[in-house]
Design goal:
It is a single-pass membrane protein. The protein is α+β, with helices and mostly antiparallel strands. Helices cover 44% and strands 29% of the residues. The protein has five helices and seven strands. Helix 2 packs parallel to helix 3.
């Protein structure tokens, strides 16, 4: 997934380094990023015309968030290898660890793609798929129409 950023000088094709976005993640990004927002890029590598970056967005006066980590924290993507950095380097493992920690927060809180159905939700789905219940519902509708 690429973010296309532009101004009067041209367009930048930016990829969130170490993150594989889901479709919900793309929607979240579109809602989260505003044209007037201040954005910083930590360039990690370049592949063809795309830049692999950590993207930092200013939030409020004194705070900012790393979009790569926030997407993982919300369960809107998965951690993948960081392109553009040597896998043996200490910076690779430092950044990869940050991403994995963000992803683990989503896993523990069961957010986004890590959300699991509760026992009640599973039971309701199982019952609604049960043939006897479906036939019983059809019979009840037929009976209601006859009365």
């Amino acid at each position: 997934m690429y973010i296309i950023l532009g101004n009067s000088n041209g367009l930048l094709l930016v990829r969130l380094a170490g993150v594989e976005l889901t479709s919900d993640g793309v929607i979240w990004l579109k809602e989260e990023m505003k044209p007037s927002q201040m954005i910083w890029f930590q360039l990690l590598g370049r592949k063809e015309s795309a830049l692999d970056c950590f993207v930092i967005v200013k939030k409020g006066r004194f705070s900012s968030i790393c979009l790569n980590e926030e997407i993982l924290r919300q369960g809107l993507g998965k951690t993948v290898c960081i392109e553009g950095l040597a896998h043996e380097s200490w910076i690779y493992w430092k950044l990869h660890k940050r991403l994995l920690q963000a992803e683990m927060k989503a896993v523990k809180k069961r957010k986004g793609i890590w959300k699991e159905e509760t026992f009640i939700e599973k039971l309701k789905e199982h019952i609604s798929n049960y043939r006897f219940i479906q036939k019983l519902k059809q019979f009840a509708i037929w009976l209601r129409n006859r009365l």
